Amino acid sequence: xxxxxxxxxxxxxxxxxxxxxxxxxxxxxxxxxxxxxxxxxxxxxxxxxxxxxxxxxxxxxxxxxxxxxxxxxxxxxxxxxxxxxxxxxxxxxxxxxxxxxxxxxxxxxxxxxxxxxxxxxxxxxxxxxxxxxxxxxxxxxxxxxxxxxxxxxxxxxxxxxxxxxxxxxxxxxxxxxxxxxxxxxxxxxxxxxxxxxxxxxxxxxxxxxxxxxxxxxxxxxxxxxxxxxxxxxxxxxxxxxxxxxxxxxxxxxxxxxxxxxxxxxxxxxxxxxxxxxxxxxxxxxxxxxxxxxxxxxxxxxxxxxxxxxxxxxxxxxxxxxxxxxxxxxxxxxxxxxxxxxxxxxxxxxxxxxxxxxxxxxxxxxxxxxxxxxxxxxxxxxxxxxxxxxxx
Amino acid sequence: xxxxxxxxxxxxxxxxxxxxxxxxxxxxxxxxxxxxxxxxxxxxxxxxxxxxxxxxxxxxxxxxxxxxxxxxxxxxxxxxxxxxxxxxxxxxxxxxxxxxxxxxxxxxxxxxxxxxxxxxxxxxxxxxxxxxxxxxxxxxxxxxxxxxxxxxxxxxxxxxxxxxxxxxxxxxxxxxxxxxxxxxxxxxxxxxxxxxxxxxxxxxxxxxxxxxxxxxxxxxxxxxxxxxxxxxxxxxxxxxxxxxxxxxxxxxxxxxxxxxxxxxxxxxxxxxxxxxxxxxxxxxxxxxxxxxxxxxxxxxxxxxxxxxxxxxxxxxxxxxxxxxxxxxxxxxxxxxxxxxxxxxxxxxxxxxxxxxxxxxxxxxxxxxxxxxxxxxxxxxxxxxxxxxxxxxxxxxxxxxxxxxxxxxxxxxxxxxxxxxxxxxxxxxxxxxxxxxxxxxxxxxxxxxxxxxxxxxxxxxxxxxxxxxxxxxxxxxxxxxxxxxxxxxxxxxxxxxxxxxxxxxxxxxxxxxxxxxxxxxxxxxxxxxxxxxxxxxxxxxxxx
Lengths: 391, 543
Known about the structure:
The complex is a heterodimer.
Chain A: H1 7-14, H2 19-26, H3 38-46, E1 53-58, H4 67-74, H5 76-90, E2 94-99, H6 104-119, H7 122-130, E3 135-140, H8 150-157, E4 181-185, H9 186-206, E5 214-221, E6 227-232, H10 237-244, E7 254-259, H11 278-283, E8 292-297, H12 302-316, H13 322-339, H14 345-357, H15 366-388
Parallel strand pairs in A: 1-2, 1-4, 2-3, 5-8
Antiparallel strand pairs in A: 5-6, 7-8
Chain B: E1 5-6, H1 7-13, H2 32-36, E2 45-47, E3 57-59, H3 60-66, E4 69-70, E5 82-90, H4 94-105, E6 110-113, E7 130-131, H5 140-150, H6 157-177, E8 191-193, E9 200-203, H7 209-222, E10 227-229, E11 234-239, E12 245-252, E13 257-268, H8 292-299, E14 304-305, E15 310-317, H9 331-334, E16 338-340, H10 354-366, E17 371-372, E18 378-383, H11 384-390, H12 394-398, H13 400-409, E19 418-427, E20 430-432, E21 444-446, E22 451-452, H14 463-483, H15 497-507, E23 515-516, H16 532-542
Parallel strand pairs in B: 1-17, 4-23, 5-6, 5-13, 6-10, 13-21, 20-22
Antiparallel strand pairs in B: 2-3, 7-9, 8-9, 11-12, 12-13, 14-20, 15-19, 16-18, 17-18, 18-19
Helix pairs in contact in B: 4-7, 4-14, 5-6, 6-14
């Protein structure tokens, strides 16, 4: 543990009632993709009574997203501290680390950190101060992409297949085994100790412009230096691409950026100046999502790239909602056909039709994500689709 | 330049003599290899800067293509047709055919892609024979010892041991496929002694053993369920999201277009690098031997080994010049043919290992005891008339291919000696493999000359034909086994590893001007007549 370890927890124990207020004032968001204000869910769970659950969501499985993995492998103590503060704030007594089973190193690191935690004086101090006995466990998820969705994660923690539930009831009132449940992303929770330690003002100042805090951006694709970069929330995309990523490969030009793993609208070079915070990206008809930025260069075939992502969604659909199950599959097949030069105009027309009828037809947003990436690629790169057709 | 005897004058001085004892002056000395072998030319090597072998020494010319940029881009594959198969074999020589046959027999769907036609390979040029310890006085242990000694100890002992133990079964398998061998009057296999070996162990059919082997394998492949794609060189391998090998991009020379073949396992059997003409040596190799397999495997992250050592076959034709580099079988020396310098003297025990004999020939030439071939190159005599004197009729009965070569040269080898000089023959190193031919990249198998570690720093005659069948069969079975139960669905299969390659090249400040794999040597651009490269550009513009 580094020198500052525990300071956030110290601050939290001094005044447990103030935590949610601080989180609200700092405008801490859900950093797993939604950008939903964290305090809102916390408040809802804190208002409930009885057994409560906190699920630390580390199911991370989207193409191009690898931030939670880095946090779990390298800073497991920070995560445990953040989860504990959250538990204290909301009176939660069960903490579940719900982690993608392929992150062996992450799982090992968290288990080790928990062992050290149990051996420390903290559990006693917390029990004395707040009367709360928190039990922690690490539960590998089923490894399905859909298992990262809140209600699917709850099903999975209950030991079932991760089928998303319909909402309401919301997890904050009816979650794991019917108990109130709070679900936050690993990155969100990892921010909490720093917020508590340094105060609201400091946290707000970390962001650029109106944005607050920092964000882990996952840069990948045809850039010289891909990787995870922790930058102030609201850093312009151009800074990330050309400053930290050192630009595109082999002198190629940027063609498009797939954002947020890649279930959002594609950004094109004209959007290169966009500050990467939730509002600014949304203003360009896209979304920040998980902070994944997959930059592709002029040498890339967009149809094949989109086909690859849509086939990922098709393979990830849980099959619960017929429109999603068949819709993603159909889109994937049509894209494959066009991508391999076998497509006809009717196929393209069916694709466009699917884009119009599918959104909003599933319990969870998976189908919307698949349509969004396809729809925006059709909007920006229609010509490329037309050129790939046989007739 | 040292003085040389002109060809004509040397020929007039030559007299066939039956008995020529090795003069005592033919001492080799300790440092013959270090001083004269082309592997030891100063500055021939550089250290690789990128890839899994970064820091290892590698021949300069080979390093250039190993660290080259890819020929294709993702955009070139837009609208490219896709196919799926279980096992994709790249290379239509002996190793590729053996692997394809065994994979197919093990129940896999097999596709075999070859740069030109099936059988256009170095296998057909293997003349001497195939080693297998089947004689009653011979043992696999002796075979292993000889292989180890010739390799200067620097081979993968497990691989060599497995290969020599496989050898008798390889012969049985070949005979089952229908291959003929020279037999004695009792129907037993006849063997010759190879240079550097302690017992007669080379089984052969006339002096075109490889051709006979290829004939049989080719027919067997045609009669099997293996799907053949000829004129389809592989220009890149495909990788899945884990970096495993998942197929290849083929470039059809007939239709001038790229096609993707997704496969659960890929076997590379593309042969060697002779046509790179390392150190400006002529080569005995086929036109396709430009190291494609090494480049493809290296880019995908396969570990290579022994990239600084190559075999120069002692008896490559030096005269006439237009046939320079053509191989003359080591069988001549096995049968008792001598090597003579300009003074008509023997200068080495002809049955030493190949690297030593080649170094001795180069020494003769450099020290002025060579014969001028006409353009400044130099050679020594292969005393075929002397052999004919000692064993009348042997050339006609045992070496018909040599007679045929003589006809092409306008020389009757029974009357006139042949001028020879070492020729670039074989790549000793290659992709590091295990006993099943698997490289360090899951899903990628390498067999034959493209694989390394079996022969160390010098190969024995006849061990390469053994190598291709022994490892070809094993890799075929292993690849078929791997493909069973595996699925290609839900896998993201693309050429993503090229981004990593370009990133590495840029970070290492390497030029991106060289493109690889070469597919063909510069002087044989089969693509020249097509709009093949134009196709790439138009695809780019569209992208």
